[in-house]
Predict the structure.
Amino acid sequence: MAGSIVITGANSSLAIPAVQHLLAKYPGFTAVLTVRNSTDDDVNTKKLRAIIAKYPGAKTSIHVLDLASLSAVHEFADIIIDEVQRGSLPPLVGVVCNAYYWNLAGAMEMTQDGYEKSFQVCHVAHAALVLRLLGSFASDGGRIVLFSSDAHWPGKNGLEKYPPAIPDDLELLVKPAADEKPDNLGRGFQRYAVSKLAIVTWMYALNRCLEKEPTLHKITAVAINPGSLSDSRALQVNTPFFLSFMSRWIIPLLKPLIRLSDPTMRSSAEAGVDVTELATRAARGQDRGYFTLLKPDISAPQSTDETTQQKLWEKTSQWARITRENTALTKAI
């Protein structure tokens, strides 16, 4: 089956093995890969290119995309839409919303769009990208892979100090109140967890909208908790020293014991394989919903409330600058 799959944050710990699995097992697909820095000055982009070089016949392209800029997201979407329309890029069959941002070692950050950075990068920007690209999917549909975490469920992640919640005033998601006192780790992780809760909540609304569209109902959305990735670089970026030290030296030694209490602990490479299987629909076929690894699962109670889903859907569309003129959705905008 021919078709294109867009992967954001394609030089991440999970995405690089996901791309390798895609090129090795599914060479018929075209991989459209986005990174913030496309030069080899970025050691991780250089690793991504080295993987691609192992497959001389691979159909790939690497694009610069900074999800902290909504203008950049819309410009990138325009490029993909134009290439599909002109026939220079096969129609889409998948969008993998892998890129993320957190800051557990510094104060709250705002983007140039005026939104809290973790929430924009993890949720709003990906929502904009997905909704812009729906009209570029193949006629037989495809899959949208969103990324969540056990952090979205209050009380389930050991780094949680303040539980995630979607407030009544949804504007507080993109413009939170200033922290009452400095607590970079606690509040930074809460902001990240809130973005993951929003992703799952929005995913349910997206699926409802897609199912009502005659030309889009074969597109399915899933939100995956890929597991506790013990070797992820995320644990060493914008994190306090003790967390970086533990991820590099302690967790690898204790991994067999930790797995007894957390069976989702695994490598980024293992998770990457699962993500590729989802994106190609080789796994879970036409299924929709929330998954832990590749198993259907129950998401946090607040995420399943339809009133909250609908309110977040409407606000997300506004934040993401989605209008009836720039998305293929005809009934939900």
